[in-house]
């Protein structure tokens, strides 16, 4: 860490600016465009995920340090599991009903 | 509520159990008081946070539950040993197969394996204890309280009776209004939280507390399988927690997660149950694989063949185990696409499993094999488990499963994977690590008797089930007609008195006799 303090924290600045920009963009898309509400949801959802990634890397330094690799594996693993559970369940239950 | 609503009444066998339970409790209290052991029990065992002692308590409780689940099994076998038997009525039979399944998986297999993990893992990685010793004690007591709560159901209030899978709508309060299935929802919730904490504990222990220099690929194989098992626990148990919470809400507070009224969906229960349930079968079998690997390498006097491929196979199994759950309900009317995909993923699991079988065989090849009791269990495991695995692949074909589903063929399959995969492993592990727990070796002569009776009895009991299953005998039936012809096969090969009875009693007797012996000897 001490090596970092001497340099200007560019990545923090970039993260900060990007976060603000993404938030403002989300406000803009929601209030000043004519997309249907489901399209708007998808767009701002994507912004949110993007912003979460920025925060994880720029501010929370997930990949750094001794625990970095474990953190990353952990996050990826949890996301895969969540996706399997959510989309698996939806697929299995809806296609079952459609077939009946 | 009057007393005869509180206690289950009207069945002489249950009355006998109630009296026996009361007498045992009075006897235990009297004995401990007479020996002046209360303080010792409290300070040395009940409040201990020592991983070895917690492990030993898990193992003791697991053996006790093996006995209870085994008596359930014997009763079922007695009832179905010939057509139109009158030992149990339909309701009683339903309750017994339900408690049998729940107890054997959650209160026998899990604590025995977690017990051995507790004793062995810190020793294998050179740590003083697990990462969170107090949490570990909490896990044990949560499990123990849950097990006791579940066990008293048959004398107080009535047992759950919708199968260990407790499918809705049958398990909903519309069809089973009594308290029985509340026992299921609540005690499994308590036990599940304990198990989740154990999973977290071992993940942290193995990541953080390995001795300096023990890199990932230098970990003993049992440590590896325990690590991956713990990850599956952390991944899968929360699903069960949520499903059980919904079940409790439905049963106790009238919500409709799983009832069609008000827009719920009974199939959601099946889906969530097996999202947990299939990983659960790997949770119990992976640590067992690890134990066999240790035992086989030791008594073949060789290094484990293909250590790395073994690790990758276990990781592969862990990943695939989250992708196969629908194979438990192919017949529920899914689309062809769903059934085909899940058939494929299920068959894929056989690949890493096969890799492991070959690793064990190649470890044995040209080894100087010593036929110790624990090695015998490992050697018997390989062919028996292979039969279970191969029949699993048969069940994995969705189209064929319409024929096999919920027949005795399925019952034979899972007993052929679970008994060699878990029970043989626990025996192999106990004989192998016993000196680490108590400071002396178990008697090899009794051990060989134990082994042969158990393995022969196991095969005689479950092998015929494949055949009566293919003949159309379905599971969970409390009786059947003479004209089905099933009685002959069942009677011929598996008269409960001769086979099932002997392998079971022999194990229980051995442990009942040897445990006190061991404890007294180890205290010398
Ligand atoms: C080669 C690997 C395996 C395959 C392909 C496989 C396949 C299957 C399939 C397709 C079913 C559902 C059949 C039906 O309901 O009609 C099933 C049931 C079952 N399997 Fe396996 N299996 C395998 C290994 C295991 C292992 C290792 C265990 C446990 C240690 C296990 C435990 C069970 C249990 C408990 C059930 C039945 C649960 C119930 O309905 O009550 N299986 N298996
Ligand atoms: Cu399965």
From TrEMBL, chain A:
Pfam families from the UniProt entry: COX4_pro
What's its membrane topology?
Answer: Multi-pass membrane protein
Q: What is the annotated localization of this protein?
A: Cell membrane
Q: Lineage from the top down?
A: Bacteria, Bacillati, Bacillota, Bacilli, Bacillales
Lineage, top-rank taxon, reads Bacteria
**What is the catalytic activity of this protein?**
2 a quinol + O2 = 2 a quinone + 2 H2O
**Main localization of the protein?**
membrane
What this protein is called in its record is Quinol oxidase subunit 4
* PANTHER family linked: CYTOCHROME BO(3) UBIQUINOL OXIDASE SUBUNIT 4
Q: MF terms per GO, please?
A: cytochrome bo3 ubiquinol oxidase activity; oxidoreductase activity, acting on diphenols and related substances as donors, oxygen as acceptor; proton transmembrane transporter activity
**What keywords appear on the UniProt entry?**
Cell membrane, Membrane, Oxidoreductase, Transmembrane, Transmembrane helix
Q: Which InterPro entries match?
A: Cyt_c_oxidase_su4_prok, Cytochrome_c_oxidase_bac_sub4, QoxD
Q: In the record, which residues are listed under signal peptide?
A: none
Query: Which organism does this record belong to?
Result: Gracilibacillus boraciitolerans JCM 21714
Q: What's in the GO CC field?
A: cytochrome o ubiquinol oxidase complex; plasma membrane
Q: Which family does it belong to?
A: Belongs to the cytochrome c oxidase bacterial subunit 4 family.
EC number(s) in its UniProt entry?
1.10.3.-
Transmembrane parts of this sequence: 12-33, 39-60, 72-93
GO biological process annotations for this chain's record?
aerobic electron transport chain; ATP synthesis coupled electron transport; electron transport coupled proton transport
Per its database record, what is this protein's job? Catalyzes quinol oxidation with the concomitant reduction of oxygen to water.
From TrEMBL, chain B:
Listed InterPro entries: Cyt_c_oxase-like_su1_dom, Cyt_c_oxase-like_su1_sf, Cyt_C_Oxase_1, Cyt_c_Oxase_su1_BS
Where do the TM regions start and end?
A: 12-35, 56-76, 96-123, 135-156, 183-209, 221-247, 281-300, 312-330, 342-362, 374-397, 409-434, 449-470
GO-annotated cellular components: plasma membrane
Gene Ontology process terms (BP): aerobic respiration; electron transport coupled proton transport; respiratory electron transport chain
Q: How does it sit in the membrane?
A: Multi-pass membrane protein
GO terms of molecular function: cytochrome-c oxidase activity; heme binding; metal ion binding
Q: Where is the Cytochrome oxidase subunit I profile domain?
A: 34-480
For this UniProt record, the keywords arranged alphabetically read as follows: Cell membrane, Copper, Electron transport, Heme, Iron, Membrane, Metal-binding, Respiratory chain, Transmembrane, Transmembrane helix, Transport
Asked if the record carries the keyword tRNA processing, the reply is: no
Q: What domain of life is recorded for the organism?
A: Bacteria
Give the UniProt subcellular location, in the record's own words. Cell membrane
In which family does this protein belong, per the annotation? Belongs to the heme-copper respiratory oxidase family.
Q: Give the matching PANTHER family.
A: CYTOCHROME BO(3) UBIQUINOL OXIDASE SUBUNIT 1, CYTOCHROME C OXIDASE SUBUNIT 1
Identify this protein by name: AA3-600 quinol oxidase subunit I
Native source species = Gracilibacillus boraciitolerans JCM 21714
Q: What is the lineage of its organism?
A: Bacteria, Bacillati, Bacillota, Bacilli, Bacillales
